[in-house]
Design a protein that fits this description.
about 300 residues, 13 helices, disordered C terminus, TIM Barrel
Length: about 300
């Protein structure tokens, strides 16, 4: 897939994305404490059930089980030497699980490490860490890359540069997670949506977005802020509400119909690609996709596609 292909897809309407992966893998028996990415090698059939279920629910873009697939993350589970193998398998599983008209967007999450001066990793070394992961994801058949749930702008830019160096024409999404404080929304590293949008736009992200951290209502506010500072297409993946602890278990309160009812406002804010993050299920995506089906591609027009 090229950037033009992706934008052409969006001109026909807002594009439905998939939903949460971690909870879906847990429902299929992923043991607590195990790196989800290990299942790409040990239980590929169970992993494949997740993108397949989301595609059947109406998602036009599905992710991969590679969020923690950098060698830094995998090292904590003794899997660093299998990083390339795990990422190739993750991309291949999603690609083989869904029809060809459903696109595979490879998930790249934070490394868990800090760049200099807070840590001891140089930007060049961080870029190489991401490049190893992204190269394997491309080999596995990914159509595009999403750098997601990021809080450090410089780390995000390292991943974007790595992706663009390896595959200049492949679409790259940069999605950050913002919290709301006394001064408004910012990542835990102090990056505001306005600053993130401007910098990610300038440094080559093809799509700019936000995921995790909030439900739809707060995500609408964040998307409004992003739209005010970039003309790039916007990507939004809200949680199913804010998590609550009920009888010792984490529960996300927003039912599928609750989220679906708020989707038009998210589109009006400027989102062109909409899915779910923590707590969302194939049923959430089914109802969200149904809500999107009858909406005009206003977000794409706002993004000057």
């Amino acid at each position: 897939m090229t950037i033009s292909d992706l934008l052409n897809l969006a001109t026909h309407g807002v594009v439905p994305l998939d939903g949460a992966w971690g909870t879906e893998l847990s429902r299929r028996g992923l043991p607590a404490g195990m790196a989800p990415e290990q299942w790409n090698l040990d239980q590929p059939d169970r992993v494949a059930e997740v993108p397949r279920a989301y595609a059947e629910a109406g998602a036009r873009i599905v992710l991969t089980n590679t969020f923690g697939g950098s060698r830094c993350k995998l090292e904590k589970n003794g899997l660093a030497d299998r990083a390339a193998e795990i990422n190739r398998a993750g991309a291949r599983i999603s690609r083989d699980a869904v029809p060809r008209d459903v696109f595979v967007c490879a998930s790249v999450g934070p490394t868990g490490e800090f760049l200099e001066p807070l840590g001891d990793i140089t930007p060049a070394a961080m870029e190489d860490i991401f490049a190893q992961q992204i190269a394997a994801l491309i080999e596995g058949g990914a159509d595009m890359i999403v750098v997601e749930t990021m809080t450090d702008l410089e780390e995000t830019l390292c991943a974007v540069r790595a992706a663009k160096r390896l595959a200049p024409s492949m679409p790259v999404v940069a999605s950050m997670t913002f919290d709301k404080g006394a001064r408004g929304y910012a990542t835990m590293m102090g990056i505001t949506p306005a600053h993130a949008a401007a910098q990610l736009d300038e440094h080559g992200a093809d799509i700019i977005g936000t995921n995790c951290g909030h439900g739809v209502e707060q995500m609408i506010e964040i998307v409004h802020e992003l739209r005010a500072h970039t003309a790039k297409p916007l990507w939004a993946r809200p949680n199913a509400g804010l998590p609550q602890l009920v009888n010792g278990a984490t529960v996300f309160p927003d039912e599928p119909e609750t989220m679906a009812a708020k989707i038009p406002a998210l589109v009006e804010a400027g989102a062109m690609f909409i899915g779910g993050c923590c707590g969302t299920t194939p049923e959430h995506i089914r109802q969200m996709a149904a809500a999107l089906q009858h909406l005009p591609p206003s977000a794409c027009r706002d993004a000057r596609c």
